[in-house]
Amino acid sequence: MTDSTIGADEVARYLRNNPGFFETHAELLAAITVPHPHGGRAISLHERQLEVLREKLRAHEMRLAELLRIGQENDAIGEKLQRWTRQLLLAADPAQLPGIVVDGLRTVFSVPQVAMRLWALRDAYHELDCAQPVPVDVITLANSMMQPFCGPNSDFQAASWLPDGGADTRSIALLPLRKGVDPNAFGLVVLGSADPDRFRSGMGTAFLERIAETASAALSRLAE
Questions:
Q1: Element (H, E) at 114
Q2: Which of helix, strand or coil describes residue 151?
């Protein structure tokens, strides 16, 4: 005597291979019941299918809302970058550019702590505040950076340029400035915050790279 019991896997395989089964046996949709996902009562298979579709719809709506939020944030960032870039382009006197860069980062982008140092400048700009002496170690660090750094303030020398010497700076971003394709930097922008998550390790740096490129292009008028 052979065992004619059909296993659950075989039933599932049959239904997958015969997607039109319930079209020819529609009466089963109302007869088959399954547990409600959020309660103990039983519901028909048709109701369960509707519930699955509703859950999928809610997930899609949440994903769409998240995409819209990201899009709005990107639009806002793009508008700020355009406004800041316009201020740089309108500067008639190159000596005004360092101030516009720093003030713009602080006000337009709402960065609480901003500082910048430039070196290898033309003789006419050696008296600018941003042209104060820079330690060799900081210049070496800037030259070695191929992209901005974000992370905790681990007693970086450049953090001392920030207000109050960076005493309450918990997170920091370092943006090297380069003239064209020159591998050596001619400056460094320092962004700081008392919020340890403002410039956290592992965060994307694409936007900071755009800021560094724009600042570099503007300030290159001062470099040798």
A1: strand 113-118
A2: strand
